[in-house]
Design brief:
alpha/beta; Rossmann fold; seven-stranded parallel beta sheet; 9 helices; 7 strands
Length: 256
């Protein structure tokens, strides 16, 4: 088999959290284009994502779940529903994320707890449940989480988000250390500033937006489609020897 065959995901089933729009929708579409059936998880309707996935000829299954309520038992139930609906699970993409902005001196408890729960804790519990399923199936699996350039930087007035994304990067390494011998690849992507709802306030601030774009060597914001190649690589046989990697997809931001 050649490298193009190694990138194919025919017969694979992927669970993508936060799949209704933005980065998650782009990721789900890319996985489907590579041949995977997709289970999308979100708390808002996913009709548009379903249309994009099924247009490739692949199956789509929607899960309406709130990751604010996802601890170990709920994560196990989510994976069980994936297997019941699609027959198996091969790929987990922990993409769902929220951000809360505020000065650290005034930062509220809910703004801290909700971000840590969705961005970090739910990702861990889902990874754990998926890994147990991969072990039961006996042929390994792939876990990809959405980190951030703020996995490396502190940012401004986003303490819970920055903490959660730094933690995702090191959780990725920690899980890879334990699960690589089981044939489970655990990696992450680290986007910079993309045209999503999370960056809407920044992009609408002309002064802030101009400053950000001047820092991105590529000279533009990322689009959800820009993540497709990286996620397909990390989900496929072409990435079988990649473990514990945090792959920047940042237009050159971190190199500046």
């Amino acid at each position: 088999m050649g490298v193009l065959d190694d990138l194919k995901l025919d017969g694979k089933v992927a669970l993508v959290t936060g799949a209704a729009r933005g980065l998650g929708q782009g990721i789900a579409t890319g996985l489907a284009e590579a041949g995977a059936d997709v289970i999308g998880l979100d708390i808002v309707p996913m009709e548009e994502t379903a249309e994009k996935v099924t247009a490739t000829g692949r199956r789509f299954h929607a899960l309406d779940r709130n990751l604010l309520e996802t601890k170990a038992v709920a994560a196990k139930e989510i994976v069980e529903e994936c297997v019941a609906g699609m027959g198996r699970l091969d790929i987990l993409v922990n993409n769902a994320g929220i951000i809360r902005r505020g000065a650290a001196l005034e930062f509220g408890e809910e703004d801290w707890e909700s971000v840590i729960q969705i961005n970090l804790s739910a990702a861990f519990y889902l990874s754990q449940a998926a890994a147990r399923q991969f072990v039961e199936q006996g042929d390994g699996g792939k876990i990809i989480s959405t980190a951030s350039v703020l996995s490396y930087e502190g940012g401004i007035t986003v303490p819970s988000y920055a903490a959660s994304k730094a933690a995702i990067a090191n959780l990725t390494r920690a899980l890879a250390n334990e699960w690589a011998p089981l044939g489970i690849n655990v990696n992450a992507i680290a986007p910079s500033y993309f045209t999503t709802e999370l960056t809407g306030a920044i992009r609408e601030n002309e002064e802030r937006s101009t400053a950000l774009l001047s820092r991105i060597p590529a000279g533009r914001y990322g689009e959800p489609e820009d993540l497709k190649g990286a996620v397909v690589l990390l989900s496929s046989a072409a990435g079988d020897f990649i473990h514990g990697s945090i792959l920047p997809v940042d237009g050159g931001w971190l190199g500046r």
